[in-house]
Each structure stands twice: as structure tokens, then as C-alpha cells.
């Protein structure tokens, strides 16, 4: 499994709708509302045999109300 964090910026007034739709997908490990430039932070574990870009594009990035995302890949833990 590959651990990936996705920060999501939403259209004004759409954060709760976006969060609800992501939660219904049941793909995430953790989902947080955040302050600052981005509105949501999603922690996902993506199967090792899946292409991360395709997986995200085919799921989370299709949610209406998303303006921008920032994906952070993780590597070995220390």
C-alpha cells in the first residue's frame, strides 16, 4: 500500500459537500477540515498495483466543487 496525502481546495461554500462525497466513497483513511490555503486534507492508502494518478483522477478528482489539489507522496518511514 502507498500512503498518499491530498490537500483539496474547494469552491466557496462547497467544502462540506465535497467532504461528504469523499466520505461516501470510503477510499480514505482519514479526512480533515483544515485552515489555510486548502480546505480539506485526505489521507489515502492506495494499493501498490494501482497507478496513483489514475486512481486519484478516477475517484477523488471527479468530485464536483474541487478547485485545486496538491498530492503529497510518502516514502519510507523513519
TrEMBL record:
InterPro entries, alphabetized: Dimeric_a/b-barrel, Tscrpt_reg_AsnC/Lrp_C
Domain Transcription regulator AsnC/Lrp ligand binding: 6-76
A Pfam family per the record: AsnC_trans_reg
Designated name of the protein: AsnC family transcriptional regulator
Organism whose genome encodes this protein: Pseudooceanicola atlanticus
